[in-house]
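Morning run. Coffee first, then this:
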Amino acid sequence: MKITTLLVLVLMAFGCAQSKPVPESKGAQTSVSNDPFAGEPGDGKFPVIDAHTHNHFRNVPERTSHIPDNLDQYLKEMKELGVVGAVVHTGENQQDYQNLDAYNVIHCAGTGAKVNVKAIEAGLKDGRFKCIKIYLGYVHQWASDKNYEPAYKLAEKYHVPVVYHTGDTYSIKGKIKYADPLTIDEVAVDHPNVTFVIAHCGNPWIESAAEVAYKNPNVYLDGSAFLIGDLSKLPKEEVDEYVVQPLAWIFGYVDDPSKLMYGTDWPLADMKSYLNAFKRAIPKQYWSKVFYENAAHVFGFPEPAKMKKW
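And here it is:
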């Protein structure tokens, strides 16, 4: 007899054994689910972490997306969608740093060709930084370059992840051979105690990025900025081809729901339309992982109930 059939019979027998229903006490209320992930991403109640944003906050529209690049817009989009936490990537001189602890926003310390060990370590010590960002492609050197070794040592010492820009660059001065996600395999093997994140899934080299994450237990992916701007203004077929289908393929190939994180690259992409597209790529039973739990694990966010309310 199959286990499922046996279970049904047991439950039926248990139900029949009760002589009469237990009366509901006066004033009893219908129980409310304690599941923090009831609902769905984007409904304002389902907690979401955006694993890839920027806060230049230049108070002018971003030149390509035309999204207002200011703190009010950033918080407005977060609040509307239930984005309860986010990761901000700063530049080499951390000029974009702004204390946003009250909104559960953490910062990655950006580095150029040479790692400013003193400045980054000071930020890791005092909690200003919770990760390190390396801009492959924008900086013309490989992930395995010895100049980055101090960053990997700091990451291991302070137990923080290293995030790489990979794939296409937003500048014609970038040299994209350095941004090939396949090169991260070498670093992941040589630094097994460091967690690495391949930002943008190496787009358009998503197959290489997926393989590196599939093969290496210390490598994760964020799926930000496959398209930029307001995706709701683009034809659905275009969004499907360049965002939904690639993300679905990556998720399926990696075959591990803990590997992929939602991210936008705000203000290059708005949070709402990008989330709606991202959501269509991920099976519903894995939404809690992709939209919250994976980023919480990689970047050290608390469980939803312990997030600061604002």
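The CA atoms of residues 167 and 205 lie 7 Å apart. Good start to the day.
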